[in-house]
Amino acid sequence: MIRLLFAMVLLALAMLFGPVLANHPGYVMLVLGGITVEATVVGMILSLTVLGFALWLVWWLFQRLFHLPKISFSFLRSRKERRARQALQLGLMAYARHDWQGAHQAFQIAHAEPEWEQLKQVMAAYSAQHAGQPMLANQAAAALDPDEPASWYVVADLLLLQNNASAAVAYLTPKAANIGKDGKLGRLWLQALQQAEQWQMLLEQVPVAIKLQWFSKADWQNYRFSLYPAAVQGLTEKGLFDEQAAFWQALPARERKSLAVLLGKAGALAVQGQAEQAEKLLLDNLSLQDLPLAWPAIRRIPLGRSVLALRKQTQHWLRDHANHGHLYALLAYCALQEGESEQANSAWQKAQQFLPAFKAETISG
């Protein structure tokens, strides 16, 4: 479309000025060392154009044939600009080497070159954060464009890295309505709410997250087992959990009836001293298929010695699935709840054997 518009403009200019140049072609005479060159203005322009193209073609052929270097006009740049570009390169290399202090200093020097200003400001902010200078990091982040969602992400992410979730929530709250389909920023918003233990506000954002698809289907299945157990248990402990509350009823029915929510209820019962009811609720709803996703939430439920039925069910599953790492992890959890440290360690070693990812964890979580 742009090309067509440009062609139409050229055609209109040709129709407008063509007759003028045809009737008044102009006259140019060049006298040099006894040589006289005479031509019309149009003819001179065309001749110079052809000559320039011919010279460019000759130079291009020489470059290809003799591998000549490209002509650089870097000498036209000011020393300050060259220094800024060099500092940007050094800053990126320092960042890659985790030399945070050096990277921050280099990005500060690179500000002299206006190109990629926002990028350099972001890199300077994260470099300062990793260098243990949160105040400098926040100052660099504050200089970003306040109207850009990408800037919101940087500011809030730095606050979370500084373990200041409440400040991140306060910063993002007036901007939440404008997050839209920015899934990365939306997920950070939920993370800030969860770390700040703003459970009701967090649950109020769930329908928005589902509608705007902040998560893929697979990622949401994983996240809900982090979200609901913590939210339900947190609200219950504060006496604020009510299944008739508007924020709870606003959740889709499949979410309210999900295993993740039931794990939260089981955790709340266990904290309230109703461990037997918690174990029954867990057994009535837990399936072997759901165990890998449910495991992080299960291991945080303080069932105490009320794990006899759960232990029997785990041993029953192991008869047919003897190489299932999560089953051995669940067996280790049951032994630990009953105070049997030796059996817990033995089962945990089995879990690590069949699921190497457990080697980065401890049985106590």
TrEMBL record:
Location of the HemY N-terminal domain: 26-132
Keyword field contains Transmembrane helix: yes
Transmembrane parts of this sequence: 41-62
Pfam families tied to this protein: HemY_N (PF07219)
Bilayer topology annotation: Multi-pass membrane protein
Coiled coil: none
Annotated keywords: Cell inner membrane, Cell membrane, Membrane, Porphyrin biosynthesis, Transmembrane, Transmembrane helix
Domain of life: Bacteria
Pathway listed: Porphyrin-containing compound metabolism; protoheme biosynthesis
Location of this chain's protein in the cell: Cell inner membrane
Described purpose of this protein according to its UniProt entry: Involved in a late step of protoheme IX synthesis.
Protein name, per record: Heme biosynthesis HemY N-terminal domain-containing protein
